Structure to design on (237 residues):
């Protein structure tokens, strides 16, 4: 019985000792072998698939390209590797402080598409901040995140305001400044004669200092500017 037990133990130990040697060839084969690296002419790319690695040997994943679909990258180097026995081409890409290696097959030439939804979200947030000082009775907060809703809010908040008496001077001043700040949110989206005309109206309004005797003029100038800005914002996309 003791002999049988000893024989079994020896057999078990031999399997444990031999196992690492059996797995060594497979582990060696799975390592990435770098066949060549070289610089390339700088070229812009974007992508939505694949992983970006810190090393050409693909030892550590830094980023998922799916999270950077709106980022434009510049490729400066390439490498040819053999991974699991298969050849592949990597590109070294960089965007700002981010960089790494990615399989070139996941890259598409040219700049990344523009993230319109992100721009709308940022515009909406900035507009709400500009709208805050407006008199509560005049303020019309947009009900949704769309340029049509923003356009309606501008027209309703500043398009038909009236100010009466000395107590309204401060209210008119706040509303005037708020409209100029609202225009600042959008003005870089306009160009050419449209931008020139809106800039002129903004300057005219900014030069008006509300006093008791000119409240009608302030309200009229504000309304004209608000309606023009509303129309321009409604055409954005």
């Amino acid at each position: 019985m003791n002999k049988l037990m000893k024989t079994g133990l020896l057999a078990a130990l031999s399997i444990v000792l031999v196992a690492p040697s059996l797995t060594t060839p497979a582990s060696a084969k799975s390592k990435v072998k770098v066949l060549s690296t070289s610089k390339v002419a700088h070229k812009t790319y974007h992508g939505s698939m694949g992983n970006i690695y810190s090393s050409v040997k693909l030892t550590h994943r830094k980023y998922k390209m799916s999270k950077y679909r709106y980022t434009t990258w510049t490729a400066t180097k390439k490498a040819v590797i053999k991974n699991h026995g298969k050849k592949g081409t990597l590109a070294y890409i960089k965007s700002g402080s981010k960089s790494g290696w990615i399989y070139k097959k996941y890259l598409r030439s040219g700049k990344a598409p523009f993230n319109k939804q992100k721009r709308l979200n940022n515009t909406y947030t900035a507009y709400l901040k500009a709208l805050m000082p407006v008199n509560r009775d005049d303020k019309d907060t947009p009900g949704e995140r769309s340029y049509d809703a923003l356009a309606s809010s501008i027209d309703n908040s500043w398009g038909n305001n009236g100010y009466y008496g000395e107590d309204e001077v401060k209210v008119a001043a706040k509303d005037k400044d708020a409209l100029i700040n609202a225009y600042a949110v959008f003005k870089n989206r306009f160009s050419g004669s449209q931008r020139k005309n809106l800039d002129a109206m903004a300057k005219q309004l900014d030069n008006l200092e509300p006093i008791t005797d000119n409240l009608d003029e302030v309200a009229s100038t504000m309304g004209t500017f608000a309606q023009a800005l509303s129309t321009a914002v409604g055409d954005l996309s």
